[in-house]
Amino acid sequence: MAQKPKVYFTKVISPEKLIEVYNKLDIKLQGNIGIKVHSGEKGNKNFIRPEFIKPIVDLLDGTIVETNTSCPEKFTQRSTNEKHKKLLEDHGWSKVFKKVEILDSEQPDEELDIPNGILLKKNYIGSKTKNYDGFLILSHFKGHGMGGFGGALKQLSIGFGSRLGKTLMHSAGKNKDPEVFFENLCSDKEFKEAMADCANSVVNKFKGKMVFINVMKNISIDCDCDGNAVPPCMKDIGILSSTDPVAIDKACIDLIYNSDDPGKKQLIERIESKLGLHIFECSVQLGTGSTDYELINID
Asked: Is the pLDDT reported for residue 255 higher than 80?
């Protein structure tokens, strides 16, 4: 009988606890390590600040990594290298860290096969991803306007995808042109299947060389990609870590559903209205991870 993946949890949200939950994991990242974060869209006030994660980045001697968004340039400050670099500076990433890189800043993209994909058979990620030995996926857990929620699985799929990769995910493989992004969006169900496919391809590429930390702070129904995200609807919950991206996201969802915070109603409505939980059954089917986990409180 397979052992349940462990998910470590603390209610204390601090830079020191980030390191503590990392140190509880069986895997220790070595070599050239990327720290995958969300830079936060211009105007967003909920994203995790660079100063908060500096101690763990320093511990791993890691490089902050991001990717450009697939939205047309008129809607975002993150669709071109030049504008995204400026935003990374404005939000403090380039000021706090000497090593900051946009993974898809150079063409061609790296192409990953998804032979058992539910919807997609190819994933396209940033060409510079291949320069890294492993990754810390450091996710701000919150809602999302299309995904329902965003955590480790979103970082692995949308977060690693190049502009082409993101566009294909959002259109169920039907659109390759980011400039007509909003004209070709797929159904909520298809989007979760495409995300699950692409997340699986990244996990398979770096199997045993990825760890996941979710920070449940500033929990809005909107993603950090929204420059006009609504304020947080729930009180801060804590920090979680795991080597299983499915388990850690499911643990976060369970903490929300089991919370006595009345603000959870708004977030649950967002998650369920977008069929957000469908990504779990898809990810389990693909073998990305397990929803049957052991939660270990370290407070």
From this structure: yes
